[in-house]
C-alpha cells in the first residue's frame, strides 16, 4: 500500500518549497529495510546543535566515507570482503551500507569521530546575520532613497517629443 499526501495547500501560500515535495515523496516510498542498517540515533545537543550516531561495528575510519552535497549528508561504509572467514554464528553485520540524511538550510557538518564502533557526526545550524529577524523602528529611520533626477528628465523629454 502506498501512502500519498496532497501538498496542494502548501503550494497555495508558499514559494520555493518545491524540493519539499520530492523529499517527502522519497521518504514515503523508501524501502524501510534499506534504512535500517546501520542503526543510528539523532540527538539534540543544544540550541542548533545535533549529533548523528551510527553503530558501525567492524568498520574502520578507512572503510567509511562521509560527504555533503546540496543539503544531502551521505555516509557510506564499504565492507572488507577480502577476508573470508568461517562463522559458526554471525550476529555482527559487516555489510556495505549507504545512509542519507536531508539537511535543512544552514545546517553544516562540523566534525566526525569514530570511537568504540560508534561513528558520531556533529552538526550545527548557523543562520547568517542577514537571515536573522530584525526589529524595525517606526519613525526612527531618516534615510531617504534618492532617485536619479537625470533619468526622470530623460523620461519627461521623451514624452515631450
Would you write up a description of this structure?
The chain has three helices and seven strands, in the order ααβββββββα. It starts with 7 loop residues before the first helix and ends with a helix. It has 161 residues and is an alpha+beta fold. The longest helix is centred in the N-terminal third of the chain and has 12 residues, at 18-29. The protein has two domains: 1-30, no CATH class; 35-134, Immunoglobulin-like.
What's the short version?
This protein has about 160 residues and is of the alpha+beta class. About 20% of the residues lie in helices and about 30% in strands. It is built from three helices and seven strands, in the order ααβββββββα.
| Shape verdict | elongated
Distance between the termini: 71 Å
Low-confidence stretches: none
CATH architecture of the largest domain: Sandwich
The percent range for strand residues is 25-35%
Topology, number of strands: 7
Radius of gyration: 26 Å
| CATH fold topology of the largest domain | Immunoglobulin-like
Question: Kindly state the mean pLDDT as a whole number?
Answer: 78
What's the order of the H and E elements?
HHEEEEEEEH
Strands of the widest sheet, in order across it, are 1-2-7-6
Biggest sheet character: 4 strands, antiparallel
Helix content: 10-25%
SS element count, helices = 3
CATH class group of the largest domain: Mainly Beta
Number of domains: 2
Q: What structural category characterises the helix and strand content?
A: alpha+beta
Give the helices and strands, then pairings.
Elements: H1 8-13, H2 18-29, E1 40-46, E2 49-55, E3 64-69, E4 72-77, E5 97-102, E6 107-115, E7 118-125, H3 149-160
Antiparallel strand pairs: 1-2, 2-7, 3-4, 4-5, 6-7
